[in-house]
Amino acid sequence: MTYLKLCGFVLYFRLLAAGCGLLLPAALAPFPAMLLEVCSGCDYAARTGLWASGLCCAALSVQGASVLLQVRTLCPPEVSLRSLLWGRLLHLPLSLALFYLGLPQSAVESFNTLCARVVPMRRVPTDCALLVFAVCCITACEACRLTEKRHKTQLRQTKTALRLANRRKMW
To answer: How far apart are CA 134 and CA 15, in angstroms?
Structure first.
């Protein structure tokens, strides 16, 4: 069930980021995507052109709500996310500073001259649809298994209660 939750977070926030990308202008699309899901943030950042590398670095640093909820799912409730959140806030300016200080000027020029993406945009919705279908199938199988397990438990409890009632009648 934990793996379903983890996949669900990625899927849900990926779809939210795609929706934000469709509704917002291209220049603003990376920001909500970065806050929602890492891969979506990098994807939209790569489309911005001049600031693509810095925005992608920021998306990796922030990690997004999807990663935070995945960590929350995997950690016991006693573990606080406070240190992770503070770490993300400190990591963002440090990683951007190191990225721009360590990046030679020739690399910046070559990033700016890269051609557009080669992967056609038709592929993303198909992938998402297949992934949603797979998660729905897994969820349905898990729900059937849990329902069957509950039914067997209730049947066993009913039989036990009937046996006890019959024994009491005999006394």
So the answer is: 15
